[in-house]
Design brief:
Elements (H helix, E strand, L loop, with lengths): L2 E9 L5 E9 L8 E9 L2 H8 L15 E9 L9 E5 L14 E4 L4 E3 L6 H23 L9 E3 L5 H12 L4 E5 L5 H7 L3 E4 L15 E6 L3 H9 L1 E9 L13 H5 L3 E4 L7 H14 L2 H6 L1 E5 L3 H9 L6 E5 L1
Parallel strand pairs: 8-9, 8-11, 9-10, 11-12, 12-13, 14-15
Antiparallel strand pairs: 1-2, 3-4, 3-6, 3-15, 4-5, 5-7
C-alpha cells in the first residue's frame, strides 16, 4: 500500500486543533474520479485561516488544507481527462470539506478541474491562484457592467494582497487608471511598479463614513468588505460599479441605498468557489492573454512544501506581500 506526504489538520475530542506533516495512505483518499500528482500550490488567506483555526474554514476532520493546485493527471475515469493532462483546481470546497492541495497527491471530482492553458506553467498558475483568478473575475464583472478605461479611475482595496496586486496588474495593462488603497503605504513603489497610478492610505476608507461622498472613481475591486466597501460605494461616480469578492475587514456592509438610487451605482458580487466551468475557462484564458507574467514574477515569492505551515500563519498576520507559490 503506497503513501504520500501531506499536511493534515486534526481535532481532538475537546475540539483542539493540531497541524502536522503526515504520511497518508492512498486507500484513505476521499472519493473522486481523477487522481492528480500535485506539482504546485499557493497560500491564500482562507488557507491561513484553516491552518491557524482562526475561522471555521475546515468542516470535515481530518483535513488536508489547500484550496488551489496545479498538477498532472495520474489516473482518470472522467471522460474529459486522461493521464498526462495538465490541470488546475480552484475552490469547490477543496481544503474545506474535501482533501486539498497541501499534499503530493489529490483525488477530486473531474468536474472541478479545468485544463491548464499551455501558455501558463504550473508554477505561474499557482502564482495566480484563486486570488488572481478572482481578480480576473472582478475585472470581467466590471467590463460586463460597462465600466471601461474611459469612464475614470478604478479603486483597488487591499492592494498588497493577492487579489489586489493581480487586479492592479490586470487593470493597468488593460488601460485603466488604478488607485491602490493599502495599509502599507511604504510599499508604494512596489504598487506603482505593478501599474498603480496613485496610492491612498486604507484609513481613508476603513472608518464609518457618510451615505454619499465626493465622486472619486468609476469603479472598484474590493476584497475587504465592511466600512471599506461601504465607503468605496459611497464615493463611486454616477453609473459606476464595484466588484466585491472578499471580507478581510469584515462581512458586514454598513451602507445605505443612497449611492444605488441617487447615482445608479451597481454592486457586483463575485464568487470564485462555485463559478461555472465556462466562466472559469474564460477567466484563465484571459489571464493567459492579459496578465503581464513579468509583473506576476515580481510579486511572487517561491517556497517549498515544508514552508507552507509557516506561510499560512504569516498571511493571517498580514506579513505576506503579493503571491506565494509552493512547489511540491
Amino acid at each position: 500500500m503506497s503513501s504520500f506526504k501531506a499536511i493534515l489538520i486534526s481535532r481532538d475530542e475537546e475540539k483542539k486543533q493540531s497541524v502536522e506533516v503526515s504520511q497518508v495512505n492512498e486507500s484513505d483518499m476521499m472519493e473522486g474520479d481523477v487522481t492528480v500528482a500535485v506539482e504546485a500550490t499557493t497560500v491564500n488567506y482562507k488557507d491561513g485561516l484553516a491552518i491557524t483555526g482562526k475561522a471555521p474554514v475546515v468542516r470535515k476532520w481530518p483535513m488536508i488544507p489547500g484550496i488551489d493546485f496545479a498538477g498532472k493527471v495520474i489516473e482518470s475515469s472522467n471522460a474529459n481527462f486522461a493521464a498526462g493532462d495538465d490541470v488546475i483546481l480552484n475552490g469547490f470546497g477543496v481544503g474545506e470539506t474535501h482533501w486539498g492541495a497541501y499534499a503530493e497527491k489529490a483525488r477530486v471530482n473531474g468536474d472541478w478541474l479545468i485544463k491548464r492553458p499551455q501558455g501558463i506553467s504550473a508554477k505561474q498558475s499557482m502564482s495566480i491562484g484563486t486570488a488572481g483568478y478572482t481578480a480576473m473575475l472582478c475585472v470581467m464583472a466590471l467590463e460586463r457592467a460597462g465600466i471601461s478605461a474611459d469612464n475614470g479611475p478604478i479603486i483597488v482595496t487591499g492592494a498588497n494582497g493577492g487579489v489586489g496586486s493581480v487586479a492592479i496588474s490586470l487593470l493597468s495593462k488593460l488601460g485603466y487608471e488604478v488607485i491602490a488603497s493599502t495599509g502599507r503605504t511604504d510599499e508604494a513603489d512596489f504598487l506603482k511598479s505593478l501599474g498603480a497610478a496613485d496610492i491612498i492610505d486604507r484609513n481613508e476608507l476603513s472608518e464609518a463614513g457618510g451615505p454619499l461622498g465626493k465622486e472619486r472613481w468609476a469603479g472598484g475591486v474590493d476584497a475587504v468588505g465592511s466600512h471599506t466597501l461601504a465607503n468605496v460605494i459611497a464615493q463611486t461616480k454616477y453609473g459606476g460599479a464595484v466588484a466585491a469578492c472578499g471580507l478581510a475587514q469584515g462581512f458586514d456592509l454598513p451602507a445605505t441605498v443612497m449611492p444605488f438610487i441617487l447615482r445608479g451605482v451597481s454592486l457586483l458580487g463575485v464568487d470564485s468557489v462555485m463559478a461555472k466551468k465556462s466562466l472559469r475557462e474564460e477567466a484563465w484564458s484571459r489571464l493567459e492573454r492579459d496578465l503581464d507574467m513579468a509583473k506576476l514574477e515580481s510579486l511572487t515569492t517561491e517556497i517549498g512544501f515544508d514552508d507552507l505551515i509557516g506561510a499560512a500563519k504569516d498571511i493571517v498576520e498580514g506579513k505576506i506581500r503579493g503571491r506565494v507559490v509552493a512547489t511540491i
